[in-house]
Amino acid sequence: xxxxxxFLTTSGLLAGAGMLGGLTFGxxxxxxxxxxxxxxxxxxxxxGIRPACMFDPQTRETLEGHAGKAIESNRDYGHDxxxxxxxxxxxxxxxxxxxxxxxxxxxxxxxxxxxxxxSATYLGGGHSTDFGAxxxxxxxxxxxxxxxxxxLSQIAEVRGNxxxxxxxxxxxxxxxxxxxxSCAFAKGKPAPILLTPRASFASLFGSVASGQAGEEFxxxxxxxxxxIDDVGRELKDLSGSSRGRVKLETYEASLLAMLARNDQxxxxxxxxxxxxxxxxxxxxxxxxxxxxxLDQLRLQVDVVQAALLSGLTNVAVVSIGSGSxxxxxxxxxxxxxxxxxxxxxxxxxxxxxxxxxxETLHELTSRGVAEMARVARALEAKPEAGGTMLxxxxxxxxxxxxxxxxxxxxxxxxxxxxxxxxxxxxxxxxVTYPKAGHENNRQTSNxxxxxxxxxxxxxxxxxxxxxxTRIAEGPLAELWG
Amino acid sequence: xxTRASILPLLLALGxxxxxxxxxxxxxxxxxxxxxxxxxxxxxxxxxxxSSETDDPTxxTxxTxxTxxxxxxxxxxxLDQNALFTCRDQPALPPADLRLLDRYEWTRNVGSWLSSDLxxxxxxxRPEHRYSTYSDDEALDxxxxxxxxxxxxxxxxxxxxxxxxxxxxxxxxxxxxxxCFLEDAAPSSDCVRYFVRxxxxxxxxxxxxxxxxxxxxxxxxxxxxxxxxxxESRPAVIKRLGAAAWMSTGALHRPELGAGEPDEHGxxxxxxxxxxxxxxxxxxRTPAGVPSVNRSYNAGFSKGDVDGDLGSILDAARDGTIKDxxxxxxxxxxxxxxxxxxxxDLLFEPHDERYWETHSEYWMAHGVREFFRxxxxxxxxxxxxxxxxxxxxxxxxxxxxxxxxxxQIVGFYGYExxxxxxxxxxxxxxxxxxxxxxxxxxxxxxxxxPATAGYQENETSIWKSTAEANRVYxxxxxxxxxxxxxxxxxxxxxxxxxLTHPAWLGAHALSFENDxxxxxxxxxxxxxxxxxxxxxxxxxxxxxLSEASKSQSxxxxxxxxxxxxxxxxxxxxLMNPLGYPFEIYNHAGFLRVEDHxxxxxxxxxxxxxxxxxxxxxxxxxxxxxxxxxxxxYAKRCFxxxxxxxxxGREETMHDACTMVAIEKAxxxxxxSFTEMLIALFNSDSFQTRVPx
Lengths: 481, 692
What we know:
The structure holds two protein chains of two kinds. Chain A is an alpha/beta fold. Chain A contains 14 helices and twelve strands. Chain A has an eight-stranded mixed β-sheet with strand order 2-12-3-11-10-1-7-4. In chain A, strands 5-6 form a two-stranded antiparallel sheet. Chain A has a two-stranded antiparallel sheet with strand order 8-9. In chain A, α8 packs antiparallel against α9. Chain B is mainly alpha-helical. In chain B, the strands form six sheets. Chain B has a three-stranded antiparallel β-sheet with strand order 2-5-6. In chain B, β5 (293-296) and β6 form a beta hairpin. In chain B, α7 crosses α8 (211-227) and α8 packs antiparallel against α9 (234-245). Mean pLDDT of chain B is 88; it is low at 1-14 and 19-71. Chains A and B meet through β5, β6, α6, α8 and α9 of A and β1, α4, α8, α9 and α10 of B.
């Protein structure tokens, strides 16, 4: 919860943060470099990523060689130490085809790292670990701690002078526009994910929108100032309710933060106009009218990409049906992949154990990875201090429960792209850790430790409300350092 | 999997019994008999301590939920129910607070309705709260504020709608003194002042405004007028003043601070307006004075007049008679619900009058309806896990049965109401009779079912999704499109009360008929009808039935894989015996005619229940429901749930005298829900606040 006290901290941070360094085109570096921007973007796919669609042929063949048999799941892994393959053909994996170079697009294979074998069984698995995936703490009773993007967004080197500490958007099967089940500000404080592209656009680019949305944004300052005066007066008069006072103080702090943010955004007009994505109603037909989750995902990613390029934020989460039952979506645009070409309910799709069902899910993961690759290429195309924006941005693709619909959280396939200046060894490698239960198995929390090290807040023990559930502290040497 | 040596300490720490599968922790307990004149003792046991109290050896548990009380004071299901219904003259000590409006309240207060764009405002209740009325920690954090700013610009839209257009308000167009502001190019100072006060008090605060509040909004409005002096831009000015008003803390929060001199316990009585609006919100989720809306030409206006709805509550606030218990009683009786052939309460629901007229003639105030939806937890049926093969093991089959059921969830085809509304109507009828309400909730066989006449193959192109909508109730043939025909007394060997309603059965079930639906149903009964805790699933447990058993019945799967495992049975004994009776229905609520080669089996042996009258074998959910209906223990839990919802907090031992009072009101009136609410609204638990 934001209090007046920590607002002052935040606003001081905002006021004191200098402009990011000027353009210096250096080579990629293996260590985080002070002065370079640091960004993190997490794509969080709900209800499991099937490892089968992430294996490239060489990685699979190598692992099967260690195991002495075909690998059906991570339980078949036979190696005792991490298996690092320097340059496997990552783009030949079923879901990683978008890493390959295409017409006018660069290859991202050599900017990526495939990570297999990470576990998080203490999160419980099941349909979703909800807040657990990003907080690395079991969340059966609600968020047990802040999720990783929240922690990252509070790091001064990450936040910089961006107006938004973090942007959380996504798609999901929902009757409400907010998903409160994956991200958290703190213990017991869920952070909402915006599930409607229209709301995301308005929140981030309303200041440069045309029509009514733009006019309303322009007039917000007066409203905020009116409300700040009002809440100040009410606080002065309020007595006898500490509960009520906390609520008003929270509101006041929110208003002050919003006012500061809006002023900053209004000062970024040119930068925003330069990258503003298409807004609602600007095209005919209007893409915002689509109910297809993949169409909506594309719009959400457009907004995130533009927010990164314009400097609105340095931290983003893109949810693809993460948390609760948000994964239970139907995908009309994937109809050709569904069994018999018939789109079926989200739960039926994931429950089915046929090759066609799996193929549909593999395609879904492939589309999600392609969206992340699209962002990566846009960042790579923009030079900034240290090389390109991609050099200063780590993109992570992961699931929210592990390996499948009803998961045991034993295997969390991940794809990392970029972030070289933050120290990530995203050079086209694949790394596979020993299977869950093995002493050399490593956990998703180790990836988060690596991210915190790379972001400027060296942390060896992120998550794990119960330390006994931790296998090893620290970052992953095979991926960061 | 953990070793046996480590299991027992874990289970004990979690609060699960390890004495052979009963829920007892050592036999029936009794109160100490120090009741202040009323012997309300019911033998009881506790199923287990709250998971939030335990020192979970596995760690990683979140501490969530609203107690409504200072940290550390036991509340809710942690309390011993016997003691809670024993008045020892402890004073109720509710904390002074400001309550942030929720999204429904905001939507209605600004003159809009469900399914409108404004209903998509972000003022969601916190998901971890048991009831949406709880207020602990409800505050506008930066994320929510960012979204709210996208909604607040439309707060005054309804005040700008023309006098002949749908969506207009009586508050504006039937008030002659508002017209000058709408029509004059240069409204006088008095005109502006009147309109600003009108908006503030009948469009935002719903109570008298302070001079400071009025002056601030007046200055803001005058500034907006100066920048847009022509009458054509007046709607924009109204939107600006509305947005400003709805950014104010007074509009967003409802005060319950108390006023006057503290009593001997340091408590303040709620002020007249605070009390009046607390009652109004509790009953209707709206304030007295909420605008009367003409949603469409055909629909006409919602209830109310130029000063909005619930005028009698407004009057009682104005003249101070709201403090009179007799006045409170009359207001509750007037507004709690009843029979309305036009069902004007539905004007704020999705769709239009073609849908509304298919509902029954019984209605209940929105707050009351929401209580039952949230307590029984059937109000979000469409958001539950989708059901597959919905008629499996029932007497029915075919795609029309399948599709008709699915359409009963989402209501896409035709105009019949969905399952959740059908259960609303069933409950509303029981409340209208208002006798032995708790028992009738659990035993009534009068179900409001969907009509299928006019939806048959030769009558409509949508017949595949409508023709067999009544099959989920096991109703054969075609049901005529009249209210009388839709009301059907179902056979006594098929249904008994709300726990046998397809809406409840479906809401507490998973996708397949042999999924562990009985666990979900049993858990709900343990926690919400017996007011006992069930520990959270240990994080080391992979709670999943084997794939190899997918061809077996749920009973066989659970009994062989869970009940037979002492580790699992420790906690599942709290749930499974309460869920087995419901295996006479499948996951979607269809009555089974067979169950994987055998007859449907709803038998269960209930032992170690929290009160002796609940012990013993039952043959089915019908038998079980009748036993619950006759249980004083279960009835008291129902009263605790009502207390929680309508006071907006969890009960503590300080509320014991209120509990005794509402039980007495209920019993003395022959089981009147209305009398129970009247007693609650007139209690110290509802009417006083403790400043700090």
